[in-house]
Amino acid sequence: MKVAFSPVYSYNRLPEGHRFPMEKYDLLPQQLILEGTLTEGDFFAPRFLSEAEILRTHTAAYWQKLKEGTLTKKEIRAMGFPYHPALINRGRYISKGTLECALYALENGCALNIAGGTHHAYAERGEGFCIFNDFAITANELLYHQKVKQILIIDLDVHQGNGTAKIFENRPEVYTFSMHGAHNYPLKKEASDLDVGVPDKIADAEYLATLAVELIPLIEKVKPDIVLYLSGVDILSTDKLGRLGVSIAGCKKRDEMVFEACHKRQIPIAVSMGGGYSVHIKDIVEAHANTFRVAKWFFG
Fold it and tell me: pLDDT tier at 23 (50, 70, 90 boundaries)?
């Protein structure tokens, strides 16, 4: 099992005043190595996303604005943080990390990105702390290079993957499934191939039962060559933005359901971490670490 991690993901390495406060990108690898789930040899540093790879998903006009720093104030507000070239470079490493994880998973079964899950980015704009859409870029590259014919995106972040849904709205070879907080961001939802909105404060039993109803029938219907799984932990009851009621144990069970379904059917799976904004950083790290522990259990 391989894990994509680059120092530029790190909270501490972003320019002062442009930091997106997610210390988990530093703490999570440390925890996984300390406890023995992973070794330093399990990690790889992704390369830099090329301009050609960007332009197979994002528009030339949007990419030009990112390169030149000519985004409007409205576009910067929608993106969620101040513009800085270092953030653009960070996004290029993150997206390339997800792509390289998918390529590794096709050969070896499973790979995970410490970062990623930037599902709010549209082809023509950034949104919700997302500049490039890593799953969209990955899916488009796999199809462009004829690595696969059918992709299933399983997005279990608390927020709907609106950018992903829009990008693939007329692309049957990429099936988008988003199970998210019905009343959470974004206010205006796009139409995924399958959307399941769950109510505020939903707890483990109902959340997991809802997923169980959809998951296996969907995989059997789509018959994907690879699954791209967004394992956001903002479904936790402790999350500042999530508004759901899932426990850390329930979040781990969710991951077990997804990994087990793929493992039993010998479907490669590439994973991005997505959101996690609990009050205590230990809850975020523990929930994300569970995703890696479960992946290790099923895929070694």
Answer: confident
Q: Please state, in angstroms and as integers, the Cα–Cα distance from residue 259 to each residue in 39, 268, 270, 296, 300, following that order.
A: 21, 10, 10, 10, 12
pLDDT tens, position by position, 83-113:
989 889 999 999 999 999 999 999 999 999 9
What is the share, in percent, of the chain residues with pLDDT greater than 70?
95
Mean pLDDT of the 257-273 span:
98
- CA-derived radius of gyration, the chain: 17
Q: Measured on CA atoms in the order 248, 249, 252, 257, is the torsion positive or negative?
A: negative
Token representation of residue 130: 């997302």
pLDDT band with cut points at 50, 70 and 90 for residue 6: confident
What are the pLDDT digits (tens) for 223-242?
A: 999 999 999 999 999 999 99
Second-level CATH architecture of 2-299:
3-Layer(aba) Sandwich (3.40)
Report the alpha-carbon distance of residue 168 to residue 18 in Å, rounded: 31
What is the three-state SS of the chain? CEEECCHHHCHHHCCCCCCCCCCHHHHHHHHHHHHCCCCHHHEECCCCCCHHHHHCCCCHHHHHHHHHCCCCHHHHHHHCCCCCHHHHHHHHHHHHHHHHHHHHHHHHCEEEECCCCCCCCCCCCCECCECCCHHHHHHHHHHHCCCCCCEEEEECCCCCCHHHHHHCCCCCCEEEEEEEECCCCCCCCCCCCEEEEECCCCCHHHHHHHHHHHHHHHHHHHCCCEEEEECCCCCECCECCCCCCECHHHHHHHHHHHHHHHHHCCCCEEEECCCCCECCHHHHHHHHHHHHHHHHHHHC
* pLDDT tens digit sequence for 184-227: 999 999 999 999 999 999 999 999 999 999 999 999 999 999 99
